[in-house]
Amino acid sequence: MENRLMRSQQDRILGGVCGGLGKYLNIDVVLVRLFFIVFTLAGGIGPLVYIILWIVVPSEETVTGGAPSSATIDGEVIKDRAETFKEEISQVVNQPSKKTSLYIGIGLILVGGYIFLQNLNIPWLSWVNNNVILAGLIILAGVALLLVALRKGK
């Protein structure tokens, strides 16, 4: 069986994009989520890429559920997936999972703590800025990928 890129139905927080990418690339889903966070902080492209993948990549449910899966994507398929995207967004907002609340809560605490520290104007914290945090996140993501690659190589 070939390895196909599909949105995960089991390991999903919003649309299953990160879960599907993690399975397709054979890496931990947390790393994929970390990359989307880094891309979001590095210029805001993360959410745009996520939404495009959410619309373009089929879900496991539609591929394995007997729905016809064509190799080509035409306007009608994009329209159907965009409507499904709207329904999924509505479901996520109305019935968030425990994981969603957990990740959003952690994110809000981290962003709030960062903004709080920036506004204290403490001299020994002057080195903390967006560029330092972004560089740290990128380095952390790279180290995590290397560790995963080294573990799988054994």
Could you give a short account of the major beta sheet?
none
Question: How many separate structural domains?
Answer: 1
Which structural class is indicated by helix and strand composition? mainly alpha
Total helical segments: 7
Strand content: under 5%
Helix fraction by DSSP (H/I, runs of at least 4): 55-70%
Oligomer classification: single chain
Total count of strands: 0
Order of helices and strands: HHHHHHH
Which whole number gives the mean pLDDT?
Answer: 77
What general form does the structure show?
A: globular
Radius of gyration, in angstroms, nearest whole number: 18 Å
Distance between the termini: 25 Å
Characterise the protein shown here.
The chain is 69% helix and 0% strand. The model has no long low-confidence stretch (mean pLDDT 77). The chain contains seven helices and no strands. The chain is mostly helical and 154 residues long. The chain has one domain.
